[in-house]
Batch of 4 targets.
Target 1
Amino acid sequence: MDVLQLDVSGRPQAWITTREAAVIYASDGVAWTLGDPCQVLRGGLQRISGRQSRIEVHPIIAVRGAVPSRAWRQAPALSNAKLFVRDRFICAYCGHRCLPEDLTREHIQPTSRGGQDTWMNCITACRPCNGRKGSRLPEEAHMSLLYLPYVPSLHEDMILRGRRILADQMEFLLASVPSNSRLHG
């Protein structure tokens, strides 16, 4: 299970392990938490009291301090795995839902014709449709898009990374995802 790390303003920063979260707790770096504790880590015995130390790790923690510059990037990194989840494993041309191994990253404007490898130029396509379109524009191949591409928000990107997300974490992330996002449906 991973912990969702936020900055103090509530902006998602990263998925971290419970051990990494424990280090932040131990160094008094947690500003606030959300959700019920999801794991309890136990340490050694205190010499004076004889009590065992313990840290209750919450599924969402906000960390004190400066915000890393990576949090302010404009667009999340594009990968096939995240693209396929964004598009719900559905081919943008024929509308069939496919297994990941049967899908490809399709460039609306082919890279051979100056198209960029960006969220706004890439959609999910099944192998047959991608082959049929080839290095043509959709209108040249007489193939229309069933949905349009978009750049995921930072909150959507945290969902698209394919982690096992706990209910508290998903609720927090989806609350900031635009209502027209395909991740809602």
Note: The radius of gyration is 21 Å.
Target 2
Amino acid sequence: MKKPRRRRFSMIRDFQIADFLTLGNGFAGTGSMLATMKYVASGDVTFLRLAFGLLPVALFCDFLDGRVARARREVSMLGQELDSLADLVSFGVAPAALAFGLGMRGGWDAIALVYFVACGISRLARYNATASQLADEGGKVKYYEGTPIPTSLALVALFGALSAHGYIGAALPGGAVTLGPWELHPIVLLFVVSGSAMISKTLRIPKP
């Protein structure tokens, strides 16, 4: 008796509606980064506004994809991995790129922003690795260990408000200081705090 032939995985055929929403999250985050680069290259604040505006779109897609997946009972490992990768782009790399675009370009700034993104990567990897252990009998995870990576949009909102009032570049609150060979904008330390909160094991945030 012949064994049933295993169906090969197809990226397009196996996509669910929720996965397209997840891609929308990643597209918006990538668009934000490109808009930030265009702002740095041209100085046109229209692109800076676009960079800020695309990140709430990413958050909306991120909010919606999980709910659509659960409502349609289409939760999958592919969807989980897609979600993590899209979140890293939109809520890790894109905010760091925005910070650079706003003027945090010193050597110490770069280290702080790289640390922030590394914390985001670690946070997402830890969640994927431990979700099954933290889940209850119904498969639902009741709390997050550390702050979820989308909380970085609180920083995006703060810097959006500052930039709207002209606090960009040399006008960033706190100015800049020279420490050894490199420059540091003290306000970049908010990204260090945000990243550290993501990887904390003592912070437990209820999961909606």
Note: The chain is about 60% helix and 5% strand.
Target 3
Amino acid sequence: MALVTPLDPNHDPETKQLAEFFNETLGFCPNSVLTMQHRPAISKAFINLNKAVMANEGRVTSALKRMIAWVSSNATGCRYCQAHAIRAAERYGAEQEQLDNIWEYRTHPAFSEAERAALDFSLAASQVPNAINAEIKERLYQHWNEGEIVEMLGVISLFGYLNRWNDSMGTSIEDGAVESAEQYLGKHGWEKGKHDGSRY
């Protein structure tokens, strides 16, 4: 079971209203948010940050933002966030070929050089120690402007928070997220791990 029990979706009316955002992105309110409700100021601040980070202000598409989130979550090993990110990428129109080959983004023809630069940025920024260097910066600036780079790093940083939260919490993973993860990530060994609801 999770470190802390998620609260009922009706526990905090303001969080419930804000959390309707996730019905669009995931098709359900995530257990991570239901757990954050133990301190409603955290759940509300998190949802508002999530909405701001995921808003489209330039050419960084909703699908690419979710693939950036997946690469970040894959780098840190959070299986809960890997599943959520690939599900959201699917729901936001990522190409089928990209979803099927996300593990091979560096070489697969379904990904453009601009997308590869963004995804490599996510990978480098999510490592410990941080691996951002002059080459990553140069490749980013070949394809993206400063505002778009800020959007990307917003996604990476948001998922840094989520990766820590969900992996430490052992957040129980929802059925819809499991379905997407098994479809797109299962062939590479994805499994629920500590998020199966029975550990801790």
Note: The mean pLDDT is 94.
Target 4
Amino acid sequence: MRRKEAGPPAARVRMTGTQRRRQLLDVARALFAEKGFDGASIEEIAHRAGVSKPVVYEHFGGKEGIYAVVVDREMDQLLSAITASLSEEMHPRTLLEHAATALLDYVDLSTDGFRILVRDSPVASATGTFSSLLSDIASHVEHILGVHFSSRGYDAKLAGLYAQALVGMVALTGQWWLDVRKPRKADVVAHLVNLAWNGLSHLEHKPKPRR
């Protein structure tokens, strides 16, 4: 039986510059999440993307450049998700529930991105990209809390303190939940709200230390 001759090899589909850039970012994102900035290399990014190193340099100038774009993209995504979930018309309890849900949704659906952010700057750190992001979120929450504090006779100047406490609590819980994934997301949100709201619902106007 005569063998069928093989045809010419299929032509390799060339990516546009935009498609290549997106592919390199996706590859780098996964690698940074897996190994961190120091553990990743341009060589491995290029290898996983199936390109030569000069292609990566052409698009981003080096490892620092592609890392900065990856981090900025993740920060924008998370900040937009959380701020979009909040409004001045919300009851404070709903505010907390929406903020916690938005963060845990991001942890759940963008796990690599969250790993990159917290590896670069853990929640408890005073500096770094994630701390800067949390500060931006806290500023947004502070503004909304300030409106509620003023209308209820509390000192609006303390809204910043409470915003930092609430955002920090949710962020630390999100970092813990990143790996354990138990209990389920909705239950974590419910317990966060339970802790915060049942503590906030009976605030003293001028608390004093008890010694």
Note: The chain has a mean pLDDT of 88.
